[in-house]
Amino acid sequence: MGLIQIGRHDKDGTPNVVTMTVEKAVNWARKGSLWPITFGLACCAIEMIAAVSSRYDMDRYCAGVFRATPRQSDLMIVAGTVCRRMAPVIRKLYDQMPEPKYVIAMGSCATSGNIYDSYSVVQGVDRFVPVDIYVPGCPPTPEALFDGILKLQERIMLKRVFLRQPDQVKPGLKA
Predict the structure, then answer these.
(1) Tens digit of pLDDT for each residue in 113-164?
(2) What is the pTM of this model?
(3) Peptide bond before 140: cis, by omega within 30 degrees of 0?
(4) Smallest Cα–Cα separation from 124: which of 115, 114, 111, 135?
């Protein structure tokens, strides 16, 4: 994780001082406390619910505390077919979420409309909210959702927290 050990080590091998950048600490805290909003629309929602069950245990990935309000959530998992009448509701909930906020499009219907090429089905949720991670499948398994969450956590660790960095920061570390 980029930890730097300073000082002598005790007999058990633990260091006296561990340091890291504030940006990595903030990103590590954000990565470890994702709170998804409950937003299941179709059959993919069953797989999302199964991911939280004791068999799969989504809490291992620090994203198991589902919230029922957008004001307490920072991750929206859109699971299922999005109809045109539902699109403004999703956008309104997305706008009510605090920054930083992330979106996972779960399943073929949420990512591309799947086989439903009709006037009433939106051909991808990315037409009205910015999507960070696409989880493929019809319906995707809980393991596929976990893979999407892990990829999102990797992206969170690369985000810049502060707009202005000191000149001493190497240009290669900026994301």
Answers:
(1) 787 878 888 888 999 999 999 998 888 888 999 999 999 999 988 888 776 6
(2) 0.78
(3) no
(4) 111
